[in-house]
Amino acid sequence: MFKTLLVSMLVSVVSVPLAVAAPKEPAHAAAKADIVDTAVANGHFKVLAQALTAAGLVDTLKGTGPFTVFAPTDEAFAKLPKGAVDALLKDKKKLTAVLTYHVVAGKVMAADVVKLKTAKTVNGATVAIVVKGKDVTVNDAKVTATDIEASNGVIHVIDTVLMPQ
After folding, report:
1. Which of 44, 98, 101, 120 lies 20 to 30 Å (CA to CA) from residue 126?
2. What distance in Å separates the CA atoms of residue 58 and residue 32, rounded to the nearest whole number?
3. DSSP per-residue string spanning 30-61
4. Helix crossing, 46-55 with 2-12: angle to 10°?
5. For residue range 100-155, what is the model confidence (pLDDT) as tens digits?
6. Domain map (residue ranges) of the chain
7. Measured in whole angstroms, how far is the alpha carbon of residue 30 from the centre of its chain?
8. In this structure, what DSSP letter does residue 79 have?
């Protein structure tokens, strides 16, 4: 029932232009929504939310955490080859591996991310973090917005879907 409700919410959600800009409230302000609800309300993560539902990871990312999510936007998913998203949505095992490759245990704010060379993801693999001037990449994905706080962690927006090897 929750999955059906979430999918119907995704279809009717109104876009809130927060994904490509820094949060308007101070980083220390208490966030009330969890990572999933924050992403859904944002409006730029409809495919990600659909994928989380298909993989059965919604309850996990609504849990206490804390989690750091490198969240690909809908535009990032659109960059995948034609049919790739549909194929992933039908392959729960592969979808789960891809999605958990975007999550790091703990709350890692941008100021801490830039000090790292790598980060171990929840799926057990490691992502490379490269800082060049003001640009930060996670593997080949550019970080486009940071420190979107949620009650159980933080979201950093990326422009490319990370694919585990």
Report:
1. 44
2. 17
3. PP-S-HHHHHHHHSS-HHHHHHHHHHT-HHHH
4. 170
5. 999 999 999 999 999 999 999 999 999 999 999 999 999 999 999 999 999 999 99
6. 2-11+32-158
7. 20
8. T
pLDDT score recorded for residue 137: 97
pLDDT digits (tens, 9 = 90+) for 18-65: 333 333 444 444 458 999 999 999 999 999 999 999 999 999 999 999
User: Using an 8 Å Cβ cutoff, are 69 and 153 in contact?
Assistant: yes
Q: Residue 142 corresponds to which tokens in the numbers above?
A: 């550019």
Residues 119 and 111: beta-carbon distance below 8 Å:
no
The Cα–Cα gap between 36 and 78 comes to 20
Does residue 67 or residue 6 have the better pLDDT? 67
Question: Measured over all CA atoms, what is the biggest interatomic distance in the chain, rounded to whole angstroms?
Answer: 46
User: Nearest-CA neighbor of 138 among 111, 156, 122, 154?
Assistant: 156
Please check whether the domain covering 2-11+32-158 is classified as CATH 2.30.180.10.
yes
Angle (nearest 5°) at CA 13 between 10 and 14 = 150
**The overall pTM is greater than 0.70:** yes
